[in-house]
Amino acid sequence: MTKAEQETILRWDPSSPTIEMGTANPRVARAWSKLGFDVRIQDRARDGTPRFWRTEGARDCIRFRRVANGQVVKRANAGKNLSMYRKNLVRTRAA
Asked: What is the pTM of this model?
């Protein structure tokens, strides 16, 4: 299967609190599994190797980011160590 054929599909509707996710990309399936989703093999190739995985999750697990001029807008604290940021924030509030 070529990389162009390794699609990932996210499907949800307003009446359901869950989102259906499917992928033909093994890297995406492993990432979902590491995130705690119950990923199951839905389809196999003739030789028995998995070629499509499916899972479900809460709709809240999907986030859309702001886009400007075709680029994702970076957050104000992007790249910063968040734990350091929180420590400094607590110190500033205490002062």
From this structure: 0.69
